[in-house]
């Protein structure tokens, strides 16, 4: 028998018992659907996490002031003004592996342009901040060191602020008022999107030179003119982060004259840790889906074997007749093996469709990006085909070993 004839006979056998075939394929459908969903959710979530880490800035450390104790009550991170511009300069100069150290202050301000106004976050920065955050200027330019030194009244706008204040107008060169001070717009920042750590829109921001923020915008809120809210440190690579973190800790303890055994008056954080925690949660879901897929595929394979054994018993007379007409053992084996594989592949097709729909549903409900890749579809087909061959071989081999005389006598 040719392979085409074998496939035709297998298809006819599947179609003749359609309901039984669908029930048999159910385990394969669930298993492949879980596999597709697992890969889609895992890949999509990992892509989102990678993108969010890139949006924060690669190899980034954030140094924040420590907490203040009053009457035995800890007031929280940042309640003490323990970091300064000099600390940032010392980190950049003395710690190996540090690319830049960017001192920053921030606060909420009202931005006014014509008849429009918007409450947003204002950041006082140096040019090093954009380097640390890997933040490009979409249009216009960034600040110069001269503008930082002279407290120039220039501003960079985030994309969200531009949308709220200017709509379809060109913002470059126009004036906006921040804390009743006129600023000239010199650049518009590229979009960063939402911060996974705190959920805040990173594009809802205006950036001004650090000296300008202290003197004209946010200075009245600061205890010390030299104090900063935090320092962002960009390190050369992931491998250098641990070493740089420890050296920064030692340097700041020395600069702040902290006695041995005294707690740090600052905190060093790695912003990507939040996303890594989320990645761990996503991996847990992925492992759960993998377990469901594995169990369902095994159950589906057992169902295939069971139904194929029943089919061999039901068609014993047919097998004997084929053997009497000259069919070889391998022809009989191939016929039942192709039938089992066909059942699994059809289940794989339906499983891919169900898995894609489930993945999209999870993405819409949980707000996760979903990516159903061609590789995952191919993997689903490969697994379903392998299950068909593995669990279909024993029934096919049993059919091939039937004695023609006994098979023809079977009623």
Structure report:
With 411 residues, the chain is an alpha+beta fold. The chain folds into two domains: 184 residues, no CATH class; 212 residues, no CATH class. Helices cover 55% and strands 19% of the residues. The protein contains 13 helices and twelve strands. The strands form two sheets. Strands 4-5-10-7-9-8 form a six-stranded mixed beta barrel. Strands 2-3 form a two-stranded antiparallel ribbon. Strand 4 and strand 5 form a beta hairpin. The longest helix has 43 residues. The protein is elongated, with a radius of gyration of 33 Å.
Shape: elongated
Radius of gyration: 33 Å
Please give the number of β-strands. 12
Helix content: 55-70%
Give start-end ranges of low-pLDDT stretches.
69-79
Helix-strand string = HHEEEHEEHEHEHEEEHEHEHHHHH
Short description:
The chain has 411 residues and is α+β, with helices and mostly antiparallel strands. The chain has helices at 3-16, 18-56, 85-94, 127-132, 145-149, 159-166, 210-217, 241-255, 272-314, 316-324, 329-366, 374-400, 404-409; strands at 60-65, 67-70, 73-77, 98-113, 116-125, 137-140, 154-157, 175-178, 181-189, 205-209, 230-235, 266-269.
Main attributes?
alpha+beta, 55% helix, two-stranded antiparallel ribbon, 411 residues, six-stranded mixed beta barrel, single chain, 2 domains
Task: Give the secondary structure arrangement, pairings included.
Layout: H1 3-16, H2 18-56, E1 60-65, E2 67-70, E3 73-77, H3 85-94, E4 98-113, E5 116-125, H4 127-132, E6 137-140, H5 145-149, E7 154-157, H6 159-166, E8 175-178, E9 181-189, E10 205-209, H7 210-217, E11 230-235, H8 241-255, E12 266-269, H9 272-314, H10 316-324, H11 329-366, H12 374-400, H13 404-409
Parallel strand pairs: 5-10, 7-9
Antiparallel strand pairs: 1-11, 1-12, 2-3, 4-5, 4-8, 4-11, 6-9, 7-10, 8-9
Helix pairs in contact: 1-11, 2-9, 2-11, 2-12, 3-8, 9-11, 9-12, 11-12
């Amino acid at each position: 028998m040719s392979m085409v004839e074998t496939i035709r006979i297998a298809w006819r056998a599947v179609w003749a018992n359609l309901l039984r075939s669908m029930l048999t394929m159910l385990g394969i459908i669930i298993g492949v659907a879980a596999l597709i969903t697992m890969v889609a959710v895992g890949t999509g979530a990992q892509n989102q996490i990678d993108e969010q880490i890139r949006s924060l800035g690669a190899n980034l450390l954030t140094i924040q002031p420590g907490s203040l104790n009053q009457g035995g009550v800890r007031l929280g991170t940042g309640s003490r003004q323990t970091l300064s511009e000099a600390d940032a300069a010392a980190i950049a100069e003395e710690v190996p592996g540090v690319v830049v150290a960017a001192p920053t202050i921030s606060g909420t301000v009202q931005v006014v342009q014509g008849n429009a106004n918007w409450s947003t976050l204002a950041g006082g920065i140096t040019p090093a901040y954009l380097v640390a955050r890997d933040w490009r200027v979409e249009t216009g330019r960034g600040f110069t060191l001269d503008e930082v030194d002279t407290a120039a009244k220039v501003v960079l706008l985030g994309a969200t602020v531009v949308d709220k204040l200017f709509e379809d107008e060109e913002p470059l060169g126009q004036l906006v008022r921040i804390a009743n001070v006129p600023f000239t717009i010199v650049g518009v920042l590229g979009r960063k999107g939402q911060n996974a750590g705190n959920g805040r829109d990173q594009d809802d921001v205006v950036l001004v030179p650090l000296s300008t923020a202290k003197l004209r915008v946010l200075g009245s809120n600061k205890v010390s003119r030299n104090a900063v809210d935090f320092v962002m440190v960009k390190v050369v690579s992931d491998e250098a982060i641990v070493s740089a973190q420890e050296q920064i800790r030692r340097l700041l303890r020395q600069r702040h004259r902290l006695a041995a055994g005294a707690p740090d008056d600052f905190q060093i954080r790695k912003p990507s840790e939040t996303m890594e925690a989320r990645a761990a949660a996503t991996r847990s879901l992925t492992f759960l889906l993998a377990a469901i897929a594995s169990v369902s595929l095994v159950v589906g394979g057992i169902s295939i074997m069971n139904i194929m054994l029943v089919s061999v018993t039901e068609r014993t007379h047919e097998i004997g007749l084929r053997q009497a007409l000259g069919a070889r053992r391998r022809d009989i084996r191939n016929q039942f093996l192709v039938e089992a594989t066909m059942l699994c592949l059809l289940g794989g097709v339906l499983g891919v469709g169900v898995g894609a729909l489930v993945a999209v549903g999870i993405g819409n409900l949980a707000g996760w990006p979903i990516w159903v890749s061609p590789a995952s579809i191919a993997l689903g087909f490969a697994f379903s085909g392998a299950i068909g061959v593995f669990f279909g071989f024993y029934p096919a081999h049993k059919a091939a070993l039937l004695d023609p005389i006994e098979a023809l006598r079977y009623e």
